[in-house]
Amino acid sequence: MNVESLNSIAQAMVAPNKGILAADESTPTIGKRFANINTESTEENRRTYRNMLFSTPNISDYISGVILFEETLKQSNDADLLFPDYLTSLGIIPGIKVDKGAQKLAGSNGETVTEGLDGLRERLSDYYSLGARFAKWRAVIHIGSNKPSDYAIDTNAHALARYSTLCQEAQIVPIVEPEVLMDGDHSLERCYEVTSKVLGTVFEALDKQNVALNGIILKPNMVISGSDANNRADVATVASATVNCLTKHVPEEVPGIAFLSGGQTSEEATAHLSSMNELGPHPWQLSFSYGRALQALPLKAWSGKSENITLGQKEFSKRSRLNSLARTGNYHPQMESAD
Ligand code: 13P
Description:
Elements: H1 3-13, E1 19-23, H2 27-36, H3 43-54, E2 63-68, H4 70-73, H5 83-89, E3 93-97, E4 102-104, E5 112-114, H6 120-129, E6 134-141, H7 150-169, E7 173-180, H8 188-208, E8 217-218, H9 235-249, E9 256-259, H10 266-278, E10 285-290, H11 292-302, H12 309-326, H13 335-338
Parallel strand pairs: 1-2, 1-10, 2-3, 3-6, 6-7, 7-8, 8-9, 9-10
Antiparallel strand pairs: 4-5
Helix pairs in contact: 7-8, 8-9, 9-10, 10-11, 10-12, 11-12
The structure holds 1,3-dihydroxyacetonephosphate.
């Protein structure tokens, strides 16, 4: 393992003014997104859609890396250049989702554990040869009555650490993603308590399994009210609670924290990130690794029609630029209509 090279990849993933596009929806998930726009989820439609995003003019001004699904890693752009090679030519780092999804955790009351460790060493070596320089593994933690259990937190943290060590052995930077879901009517305080426990357990597991912390990127949820909560906390409260929780748990060696959007609206996710960066400087870069918050508007603008490609790219460019501004706390909601 060459820690210096892992560290320089991690630094590039959270380069100033840039963030990561999560475009790694599994085939069933992208199928749901396409169903919402009445578009059939064929392999070619998925390629066309992702090609639209990646070929958006000047996108490398705002986007440092893209997380791909395995199918996309092996697809090509319209000029027959494999997507990882195309992205690399733009100065964008290709990454790969390597987990096999959250599955029912045996012996739990409806909780999940993320699977995908079997054969991971061999898969990572294949992904590296295809150009992937970072990976993603998403653990899912549910808030509910008696949830999460210590059992679910420990099991997911252990798997995240096993994945991380295997990635670093393969010279691939692991994105460590413990997502505390926003689903439910819980308060921001409850989200804080759970996120705090999860992050504490994850960093303990990473330490036990010899993960080099300067060669990872953390991808956490924000500390936020449940999506069905009454009186949801405002932007400033989410920002200060999230920064406070991260400051307690994330060692300074970690180069960057790239948030997931987790079901927030595109505008909320940008406003929260900007407000957190306004509270800086922080010991780590505070960036984005959004899926829905970057893609919802371009996906709708495209709606599966070739004549809408330019419109879709315009929306994607706008969201990327506004999130880029949020990296330095310079986003303002009025910018939404000014564009
Ligand atoms: P969202 O931003 O839509 O939560 O997706 C990010 C992601 O990569 C989830 O694993």
